[in-house]
Amino acid sequence: MNPMSTTYQVPGDFETIADALAQASAGDTIHLNGRVKSKHVRVEKDILLTGDTLLSTDTVAIGLFASATIQDLRVENPNGHGIVSMKGSPHIQGVTLHVAQTALACGADASPTIQDCKMESCRVGMSAQGESSPSVQKLTISSRGTGLLLTGSMKGHFSEVGIVAGQMAGVEITGEAQPVLEHIAVALGGAGGFFIHGDAQPSLQACLVQNVQLAGLEVSESANPTVDGIQVKSVNGSGLFLHGKSRGTYMDIQVEESALACIEISEDAQPEIERGHLSNSSGGGLLVKESARAEVLDLEIHDNHHIGAESTQNAVLILDNCTIRANQAHGVHARDQSQVSILRCCISQNKGDGVLTSGAAKVTHQDCAIDENKGKDLNESGSSTIDSP
Predict the structure, then answer these.
(1) What is the pLDDT of residues 287-297, one digit of tens each?
(2) Domains in the chain, start-ordered, CATH in brackets?
(3) Cα separation, 172 vs 57, whole angstroms
(4) Count of CB atoms within 10 A of residue 220's CB?
(5) DSSP three-state, residue 325
(6) In 3-state terms, what secondary structure has residue 23?
(7) CB atoms within 10 A of CB 329
(8) Euclidean distance between CA atoms 194 and 173, whole angstroms
(9) Whole-model pTM above 0.85?
């Protein structure tokens, strides 16, 4: 602590926070004693605000326009928002926000550091927009709507965030946002886990989704994420739902116990998927349809209650070095006018055919082990073909 700084008590030295702020200089501390009611608190100085509880009676409890510090404080706002950071590099640590609307927001070019905070009973846990670049570590969010809402051209880093979401996605990323999200866990969402759309290009690392009502990870429009490690379990939609004109690289994917396909790819999506396990799904392992194109490498698809890998309509599917085994229907089923290339794959012990084609589908396979399936290992129907170059 700066020996030249002053600590102002509210109440005590001043009756209101506004009066204390008017007197305070950079480096000073304002300490709240008990539950202090206040209108909007606008902080334009690099001070420390700490103490017990701030009860806001305004639309926004605290507006940060400086590199101030908010530490070890409880913020309540029964009708409005919590903290809004619009300028500088404030530090927010050990703060609990119990508000009706957005608990914490940052915009413009603000770059707040946020650590060890809790957000309770809010509509949105945290939002970031504009060109803001927050650094977030150890955040707990219990929201009625969305946990994290990241839009605009924002960047920043989020680590160790736990989210219990309400009727919206646990994490929504849109616009041209490019955040890095690491060790993010979403549970009990009334909608999905992660929803990435627009032109967003986020990076997701070591994330977890479980017990949500829709897809664990949905990517649409022109989004182009990089995913390096995501585990999806017990969802009522698909584990991953990739559609629109989305692209993206998806590595180390683990999906189990999804009501629909572990991974569903549709419309004009063109993802690259590398490494992972798809298992115990009611809707099968991998479904590629419409005009989608998917390149899949080193994926294990096993013990699903439907088809291991399925292509329909005009889809293109490339399976390279994959293992497709012990599924309750066919290992691979190519339908309609879809095209499937199977390279260096093991397809065995499936309850239906190893590879089934129907309609006018075309399948090529090379250097594969296709055996021990309950039906035929290779089964052509209609005008479809299975070729071995």
Answers:
(1) 999 999 999 99
(2) 45-236 (2.160.20), 257-389 (2.160.20.10)
(3) 29
(4) 19
(5) strand
(6) helix
(7) 19
(8) 8
(9) yes
